[in-house]
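Figure caption, in words: inputs first, then the predicted bound structure.
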Amino acid sequence: MDSELFSLSGKTALVTGGSRGIGLAVAKGLARHGADIAIIARDKSRLEAAKGQIEKSSNKKVWTFSFDFENTKAIEALFEEVVSTTGGVDILVNCAGTTARAPAEEVELETWNRVVGVNMTAVFAISQAFCRHRKQVGKGGKIINIGSLMCHGARPTTTAYAASKGGLLMVTRALAVEWAKYHINVNAIGPGFITTDLTAKLHADEDFNRWVLSRTPVERWGQPEDIAGAAVFLASSASDFVTGQILYVDGGWVAAL
Ligand SMILES: NC(=O)c1ccc[n+]([C@@H]2O[C@H](COP(=O)([O-])OP(=O)(O)OC[C@H]3O[C@@H](n4cnc5c(N)ncnc54)[C@H](OP(=O)(O)O)[C@@H]3O)[C@@H](O)[C@H]2O)c1
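Bound structure (NAP present):
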């Protein structure tokens, strides 16, 4: 195997939600394959801790930006700040995400707007800024959206999250089709159930945990590190002819009846 195929040397990757969970594991994976890394999240102390971890495991440059993706109108200015600080972004990983669990008939529209805003609208806005940047430098790029099993199906109490992730899959496909002419590949990863802060309550619930284990063919929860390999593939030249796809990293969940 040509080791250059998966090399990200000389590239800079921006990972939203890179301060913990899946985003941090993806940022570490991309850095280990040679990319300098910029991460965005709200909590500054977690950002600094993540920066230390990525630097220690890779010796690559790491920049941090504190930002709340609920503030969709400020995303363009944020992206400009990232570009002027880092010198340019070649790879955009949209991983920052949020959820809210409640019976559909009780979901406040404010909650709906927050979840759809962070998980889908903000991804679209930062992708627009990324596309304009790549056009300006005259080079293509890679966008990787972190989807979910809920790009594929839903379960009760997840309406806003399922809508946001289902929509994110179509954002992925629509941008892939439209931006192929700019050599920007747009793909998604659909993680199965992964143990992170987002799923801590579900993991601690015995019935839910039993259901996940019985429903997942490989009979375990995923770890954040399980997502890193797919991200390296979709960020590297190994995936240059892959666009508009979702790669489920789910222990077989979607394949099983
Ligand atoms: N865990 C799973 O089983 C699973 C499965 C499928 C898909 N996913 C998706 O994977 C992504 C990461 O999930 P995770 O499980 O790793 O979650 P997590 O551990 O809760 O991490 C979420 C990350 O996003 C950041 N973030 C959250 N809201 C934000 C906001 N409004 N503005 C800026 N940053 C924000 C968080 O930092 P701050 O809180 O400091 O802002 C953190 O860095 C999400 O898109 C999620 O939907 C997760």
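Residues 5 and 238 are 5 Å apart (CA to CA).
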